[in-house]
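FOLDING PROBLEM:
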Amino acid sequence: MGKFLTPDRHAPPFFGNYMNLLESIAPFDGYATAIAQDIFGLLGIGVKVQNPERLPSSGPLLIVCNHRSFLDPFILTSYLNTPINFACHRYMGNVPVLREVLQSCGGFPLTNKDWYRDLVEHSTNLLDRGKTIGIFPEGAAPMLATPTPKGICPFYRGFAHLALQATVPNLQILPVAICSQAEVQWPAVPLSLLHHLDPLEPLFRQEGWHPAVLYQRVVIRIGEPFAIEPYRERYHGRQAGKVVKDLTATLSHQVADLLAA
């Protein structure tokens, strides 16, 4: 469905064995997209896309989206008809099979220790080549305590720092909402296991289970893309913190408005 990352000198060792493999065997095209959509159809998952014309046809792009299901990266890549490289939670990089599956779909799990440097380096490398990065700024919170279908958890500011610090010309940000119309949920993974895989995540230091959300009907709503340059022009000195806060709030409100539409 997506692409592997292209190797670079900053990538962790396990990236080198898998990057670009899927692209070299079966380039991302309409045929691959059709197969992926057929699979979702066989699973009984109905997906609609609203405002697909808003998706930029080229250039570096940062997609900012809400997150409630493990299916979200696969659905976005398949139905937006473009390869998206997703930043994934740290624990996913510590699960061998899951790690490789995510990499095969363009994901790059962040490391346990220096996750922010990984995020900036890998994302900037991809954006410099005109690729698309997908970010779920709510982090792990909605995956543990799933909000209502129109609810949203507070956004972390890492994506805003990334967008403002990445020296990539013509970078655009696209707000997207995944709107669940019908779904089923069940307990999937004990949090104690996730804590073992990622002891640095405070949300995993509790009793209970990580729920799995399986969509039955879902709508992808695409917002209006906008350029990051006006924010970058103010991102210096004492204004920097306020610019990050403003950009985070802007995207949070836009995604929330798309969910509520």
Notes: The chain has ten helices and eight strands. The radius of gyration is 18 Å. The CA atoms of residues 73 and 86 lie 7 Å apart.
